[in-house]
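Q: what does this look like with dephospho coenzyme A bound?
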Amino acid sequence: MIPERTRPGLAMAAAGSFSHFDALLEAVAPLDDIPVAVVDAAQEEVLRGACEARLQSIVEPVLIGDEAQIRAMLRDIGMDQGSCPNFRIVPAENSEAAAELAVQMVEKGEVKALMKGHIHSDAFLHPILARLRTGQRLSHVFVTELKSYHKLLLITDAAINIAPDLLTKAAILQNAVDLARLLGVECPKAAVLSAIEMVNPAIVSTVDAACLAKMGDRGQIQHALVDGPLAFDNAISAHSAEIKGIRSPVVGDVDILLVPDLVSGNILAKDLEYMAGATLAGIVLGARVPVILTSRADPPRARLVSSALAALVYYGQSKKEN
Ligand code: COD
């Protein structure tokens, strides 16, 4: 874990300024760069993100994929010389072979994290699920920075678990709580989302949310304040909650939004990105190594910040194991 003094949550609370992500990047920069396998790296945005993360001393990328294409693209975008030369390139015939090689590199201890390149998510995830499970649930967290919200907002799970049941939601939430704590939030506030704030047995997510809130009270979800069901508006806005007469320790100051399923979460996150200008970083937790799972259309900054999250998680896990 990065030292308390420099953890981004705390640093930002003190500074009161906007870029939480800049604080995160600054906090991980002094740590040793971690070797990261970039799976199916032959795409310009992927290479720009990997190069930027290397320039900022966060990761040491190992580029896996079509070697000729990778070299040509590095040349085209001016990243074959100057401050970004001599990438290690591991040739792979296709996406599946690249994913397989990356998993082997984790097994041999050659890399400490994985990054999705131009490969489809499910093809990327299959060998990870088959060979790099730990007994923990694998789940994804979007970490979002928005001008209209006063802190980082974690959204989970919008990318891996398609239709989680109650116990899977509890595991997804615990993963996000653990990440929030690494980001410097000692006791994160989590809102379990549905469409309404009342329990309605016809809407299963409201029932799950009420159970999760009670699981939070009873310590079955640790180190967090959990409440739900909450609709998006009354989770995010204390004013909206007050109008509805909702008394809750989390409303208006939420760190984590636990969404009912992948589809609703994915729409929420992309909506924030495209309509509200959010920057979305993304990380998969629960595997043997942190996995950077950005969308193929994501800009280099999203990949850069996601790399910083991977470094944070890697050092957090190493500290736990030692
Ligand atoms: N964590 C731990 N174990 C898991 C998980 C998980 N998240 N998911 C499945 N398992 C285990 C199961 O218990 C089982 O033992 C084995 O893995 C296979 O389970 P299946 O058959 O349900 O898994 P798959 O391989 O069919 O599907 C897993 C995926 C992650 C590929 C699937 O859930 C998926 O496609 N998710 C959406 C990915 C995606 O397209 N995201 C894009 C959004 S940007």
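The CA atoms of residues 213 and 227 lie 5 Å apart. The pocket of dephospho coenzyme A is lined by residues 121-122, 125-126, 129, 133, 137-138, 159-162, 266, 295 (CB under 6 Å).
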